[in-house]
Write a sequence for this structure.
């Protein structure tokens, strides 16, 4: 028969093992989830996509995506390593910079132009401009 101390030790050992493996498992799962999202984006925007990784803040990384049809989007990864792994898993072609030929592939519409120009093109005012 196990005593209370034996039960606690067994529970502590299980918790310790879970804590040791969990940090290593989470990045892989996060990268796999991001890779699926990249794949879904590519599929719904012409079948392929290209991307660029950029540090945002607090270790997070933006994955900028441009589909074959010119549509664009962003995903956020908790680290550069996870972003790179996700891009690799998804087969995403990465660019060092978001300029030149890569930037020229982005198609923007009236919504984006009005948001960028604000009131100058009849878009919404920035908060606090009242």
């Amino acid at each position: 028969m196990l005593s209370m101390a034996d039960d606690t030790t067994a529970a502590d050992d299980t918790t310790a093992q879970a804590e040791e493996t969990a940090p290593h498992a989470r990045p892989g799962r996060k990268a796999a989830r991001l890779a699926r999202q990249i794949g879904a984006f590519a599929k719904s925007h012409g079948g392929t996509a290209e991307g660029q990784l950029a540090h945002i803040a607090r270790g997070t990384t933006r994955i900028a995506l441009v589909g074959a049809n010119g549509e664009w989007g962003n995903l956020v990864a908790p680290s550069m390593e996870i972003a790179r792994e996700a891009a690799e898993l998804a087969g995403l072609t990465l660019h060092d910079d978001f300029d030149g030929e890569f930037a020229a592939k982005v198609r923007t519409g009236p919504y984006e132009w009005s948001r960028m120009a604000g009131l100058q093109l009849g878009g919404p005012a920035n908060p606090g401009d009242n």
